[in-house]
Amino acid sequence: MALSSFLTLSQNRLRQDGLEWPESAPGLKIPEHRARGAGYDRMTAAFSWIRPEPQGIYIAPTDVWVDPSRAVPRALVTHGHADHARGGHGQTIATPATLAIMKLRYATSDGAVPAEYGETLSLGGGVKATFLPAGHVLGSAQILLDHAGERVIITGDYKRAPDPTCEAFAVTPCDIFITEATFGLPVFTHPPIAGEMAKLLNAREQNPDSCILVGAYALGKAQRVIAELRAAGHHDVIWLHGAMEAMCRLYEEHGVALGDLRLVSDAPSKEALRGAIVIAPPAALNDRWSRRLPDPVTAMASGWMRVRARARQRGVELPLIISDHADWNELTQTIAQVNPHETWITHGREEALLRWCALNQRRARALALVGYEDEDD
């Protein structure tokens, strides 16, 4: 699809979310002749050994898939979220933390091959793979593939903001950079997390007879919110929905200190939860489960809380803009720092990022992958 057609689709998608296309945003206006292409969305023939397919990225010389959406004989997995990881593979190559997460979430450990950060594995067919930190969640990795002198990085999901629960993203030069674009629009700029923690703690102080019920994705977001609360000086008990406990314990087993965590079901009374912070899956915010809580103030930690319509739709009183994905500035900064010959965009808001690449004389193309969804990031 031509870039100009992508831009029209992007404008329509923004309006559906209650936002406006930022025509005045710097660096996004592009001459029509450049929007038509001039080779920006064509695959470089030299890299025919790596192929984007609807169900994932295929490495032909060694018959291996990266983050496939269906079971395959051999898979490289960037991290444990369900739109990138699944059970049923004959062999799964991932970091030890990701393998532990997959064992917990998908009850699978057969064929697990651990790869430490910085370790280079020979996959056969002249292909080598090196796992590098991605900064998304515990164990998340970029995968550097090297074949015949050509270097390709597949980022999976990533962020550049500091996170006490996982290793920071490692900028690594390459020829082709395969990036996500979940928040690939200029309107998405994530604020410093310290300010969001201050909002949360202030709400607690303002509502001493209530509890603050925070909806947070069970893998990554919940643990990051807890760790950041501890860093902000909150050392009281943090209460958990039962669905959060196992993943929090796994994080602790991997050296992430989360402090005093207890299950809401173990609270001696409803009164014991007044003035407390409770962490639960987003689906529990308006569930019958929440009725056991004392006058909860509902909060949600997500990059999508930048979109006011989404907060209203979920009945969120305290939107916390906290994301484990790179925002617009981080996406463009990362592409500039990696400085690849070509950028491939796997999923998310590809249109504006394609436009930015074209304007900045950078070759880029969008990949038609399926199964990668917007989590309750």
Question: Could you walk me through the main structural features you see in this protein, from its secondary elements to its overall organization?
Answer:
By secondary structure, the chain is α/β, with parallel strands linked by helices. The protein folds into 2 domains: 228 residues, 4-Layer Sandwich (Metallo-beta-lactamase, Chain A); 128 residues, Rossmann fold (3-Layer(aba) Sandwich). It contains 9 helices and 19 strands. The strands form 3 sheets. The protein has a 7-stranded mixed sheet with strand order 7-8-9-10-11-18-19, with helices on one face. The chain has a 6-stranded mixed sheet with strand order 1-2-3-4-5-6. Helix 1 crosses helix 9. The radius of gyration is 21 Å and the shape is globular. The protein starts with a helix and ends in an 11-residue tail after the last strand.
Strand order of the largest sheet: 7-8-9-10-11-18-19
How many strand segments?
19
Radius of gyration: 21 Å
Mean pLDDT: 89
Strand content: 15-25%
**N-to-C span:** 28 Å
Overall tally of domains: 2
Structural class: alpha/beta
The name of the CATH topology of the largest domain is: Metallo-beta-lactamase, Chain A
Task: Tell me the series of helices and strands, N- to C-terminal.
Answer: HHEEEEEHEEEEEEHEHEHEEEHEHEHE
Q: CATH homologous superfamily of the largest domain - what is it?
A: Ribonuclease Z/Hydroxyacylglutathione hydrolase-like
Q: Counting H and I runs of at least 4 residues, what is the number of helices?
A: 9
**Architecture (CATH level 2) name of the largest domain:** 4-Layer Sandwich
The residue fraction in helices comes out at 10-25%
Based on Cα principal axes, name the global outline. globular
Sheet with the most strands, sense and barrel status: 7 strands, mixed
Low-confidence stretches: 1-10, 21-27, 29-44
